[in-house]
Amino acid sequence: MSTDKRKAPNDDAYISSSNQLVKRQKSVPRDAGSAIAISSSTSSSGALIKAVPRTSALQAPIMELTGHSGEVFVVRFDPTGEHIASGSFDRTVLLWNTYGDCINYGEISGHKGAILDLQWSRDGRSIYTATTDSLVAGWDVETGQRIRRHIGHEDIVNAIDVSRKGLEIILSGSDDGTIGIWDPRAKEAVDYLETAFPITSVAIGDSGVEIFSGGIENEIKVWDLRKKTVVNNLRGHTDTVTSLSVSPDGQSLLSNSMDSTVRVWDIRPFATSNRLLKVFEGALFGLEKNLVRASWSPKGDKIAAGGGDRTVSVWDSDSKKLLYKLPGHKGTVNDVRFMPGSEPIIVSASSDRNLLLGELGK
């Protein structure tokens, strides 16, 4: 498998089978520097037209990460933001450094089906994967060895989430219509919640009591884990719900759907009955019908979503203003994530088999 890393073309829109892994290098201070845009349309030698302030310590304003041999369905930063994991149709998870040359320092392999979703453990030492081979699995990041196979689902596992507080638990949603609740230390599920439709998205509230699921019935179910029952239904989407994500402050839920809308819902315990807060439009879904995902920025002030139009849409979460429409991919953008921390860095994964890592403007 080729793992060439190269700088992507400077685009002004972005600016404003081995299980052995190489051990991570220690982080060193980096100088953000500045980017210079050069035009060669009127001169063979090029003309200096402006200096664009850099906003991050990335080696270049945009980095293209290549190495997967199939569609890339999911991408996640680790808790520190220093490393990236991407999962693909090629049945592998590739591990990348965020800074420097964005080296592909490791590969996790062993699944017999495509990697549809993944999450890092809270300590960054493990990765949990959801795949088309009906498994949820845990992997040791340093060695690439599988820690545990969580067996129990009877069909494709589309989505997983990991609790952010309290005891670390894994939540999974499958085409078999069940939501699996897993202790990473145990092979068998702690419990299952059953529905009548395939589950395409899941999320865990910060209380650890409420969980959220979305599926092909176009609505979001709110579950009480103590009662194992649905306590609310969030309705408004008109097509399959493809992703769910709880806001950094734990008070809102972000949903993306094949109806080409991204929505924010109020999930506070005593909110009004009409919990729909905002609708974001502009991220066209396209014809592939992949489980395209949306995400929050670390402060919750921005929202991003991939699209079938090969772009990444970024909105201001308060005003709903479309801030960026980021080009560069040659296929559907299936996932997009903001880097944890203060640097305005975003990474996207696409059906064109590549990742784009870039900085946003101030």
Short note summarizing the structure:
The protein is mainly β and 362 residues long. 1% of the residues lie in helices and 46% in strands.
Question: What labels describe this entry?
Answer:
four-stranded antiparallel beta sheet; globular; mainly beta; 362 residues; 46% strand; 1 helix; 1% helix; 31 strands
What this model shows, in words?
By secondary structure, the protein is an all-beta fold. Helices cover 1% and strands 46% of the residues. The protein contains one helix and 31 strands. It has one helix spanning 12-15, and strands spanning 5-7, 34-39, 47-53, 62-65, 72-77, 83-88, 92-97, 104-109, 115-120, 126-131, 136-140, 146-150, 157-162, 170-174, 178-182, 191-194, 199-204, 210-215, 220-224, 229-234, 241-246, 252-257, 261-266, 276-281, 294-296, 302-306, 312-316, 322-326, 333-338, 345-350, 355-359. It has a five-stranded antiparallel β-sheet, with no helix packed on it.
